[in-house]
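Quick one: structure for this chain?
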Amino acid sequence: MLCKKVQADSKREVDRDVHAWLRSLWEVYKTILDLLKNNARMEDCYHETARKGFQFCRENQRQLEFKRLCDTLRNHQNNAKSNNYNADNAVNPNNPDTIQRMLETRFKQMEVAIECNLWREAQQTVDDLFSLMQSKGGKRGPRPTFISQYYEGLAKIFWNGNNPVFHAAALLKHFALHKKQSRTFDERAEELANAAVLAVMSIPLNKNLDKTRQMDMEVDHVKERNRRFATLLKTATIPTRDSLRNDLNNKDVVSAASPSVQRLYSLIECEFTPLSLCRDAKPLLEEIVSHDKFADLNKYSELLRKVIFMRFAGQLSRVYSSVTIDSFLEMACIVSAAEAEKWLVQASNRNSSEYGAIHAKIDHMNRGIHFSVGDFHSVSLRSQLQTLGIALTVATAKLFPEQDVNQDEFIKDRIFTDVEKRLDEDHKKVFSRKRLIERRKEQNEKAEMIKAQQVNYSFFISKKI
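Got it. Here's what it folds into:
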């Protein structure tokens, strides 16, 4: 007991000494920054001290001090803009070299904030970075490595904030920038392409924007948030799942991805055979989860399984009126029975579903699942009829190409004949309408003149009386 008492006392003394040392070192960093905040000759020392302060906070897990350090740097920058920077040795915030140093410090700040899971501080740092990169003084513009770090950090922030659409858009920007810089295919390009393709595929299937929360879109602050995120990505419009999927094809992102990711994309977005979709996608998902080169992409696994399951269940509900639970689970082999039931119940709730409504009822007593198409005028049924009509038109054109050409010629000739017959008649109608308008205009003018004469006459009579 005496030994334990002595060890506990010594441990408390050591902790007290370490705490005092950390506090003293923090005060040193803070004092140096306050002294050098407006000294142009000591800018390098100022920013080096700030970066060492970030390193100190990361190594010792000093989150509160890190927030204070970020606020201090932000206040120094705002004060430098408001003060007279024409004085001797004053920091000029519009100087390109000064902006470049600020960018380096802010990127280090964003990196440490993400590593320490301080996402609110990381978001504020991204806003500071965007303002610096848009400043007029930075004529040279940020280095390509900085822009790459910017989009990479944005992607992590959007992922943590549960914004899959903007997360995928940031990854697409990152891939496009890397492709522009390297101009050659390398392993890094394949990694970025894999991440971008999987991120786009994992976006919920609901076709409305961020389009996962239709009720929230009525709130002004949500609209403003989406516009601000689009501005940070330097895009003119707010991205959607369909627009991002088009970007994948237009920018050759899919072709740069690994073969397993290309095959998975083809299964989900192109071929789409619902009865075998889950069975065909299962080995590809297992490869993505187990392979070392996909270690950073495991986070997309559950979302991809949910997207695949929802596409499978949605198509099944349009084709079949009922199916047994055993056969349903056999076809949906990528999910467990508990997950299948949970996701079906979520999809049945039209207001809260992120993947579109699926009208399904689970009958555990008779071991069956019953589907219903719902209202005849529903969007899903109309889209199916449109798809059927387009497919029939394409099939008819392929089966009877000559008949299609002859029919087009016949329709064209009939249109020209009708136009020639109706040309003279249309001219006569136009001229008669013109004459009618002129006649009515003259009548209105005469009526106004008569009315004015009557008013003048009555005024004259009243004055004479």
